[in-house]
Amino acid sequence: MELNQLEQRILGCLIEKSITTPDIYPLSLNALTTACNQKTNREPVLSVSEQAVLDTLDGLIDQRLVVVESVGSRVQKYRQRLCQGEFAKLTLTTQQVAILCLLFLRGAQTPGELRTRSTRLAEFKDVQQVENELNNLISAGHVQLLDKAPGQREARYAHTLSSDVYIGNSEMPSAGHTEISSTHEIEALLREIEEVKAELRQIKQHLGL
């Protein structure tokens, strides 16, 4: 399996929204495009058109990674089959689904980042549990441990479903830098709040409120 950048983003968004906003899942083309272009919990931030998303969906449908569901006579909605549902390509735990989702949406990350960012997707009691699930995903061939770049203190992990994986400059602070750590956590919480607000607006729009 070799996913391009937009295919990764689409699958990540479908996984994410199936967990965080099940009331509006599966997603319409408009809702999926909005999710792909979301500025929170996305690295890199994209600006793609509905047509680009639609063209990419056609390829994912051909690969049987996405299915179309019709609602009424006009609206088509999209559901992913990579790691959820009876005919999923991959059999994963809830925690592994959350990890793969985040790796699709934000590229390579440390175990600490994955735990911080997964609060709305799955529960991890500590970073060790994240590392255990990462090791299970490595054994299954779905995740890889990246070599440390110069200046990096912590190991980062990426999925193996594409050679086009966003690496970025992500780095968690070391344990001794409590002030920096607190700032990082506050910024993460603020981004999460903005994401919740955006999803609430989508739900209200869906319900006609």
From TrEMBL:
Domain of life assignment: Bacteria
So what family is this one in? Answer: Belongs to the UPF0502 family.
Q: What PANTHER family does the annotation carry?
A: UPF0502 PROTEIN YCEH (PTHR38768)
- Official protein name in the record: YceH family protein
Native organism is Pseudoalteromonas xiamenensis
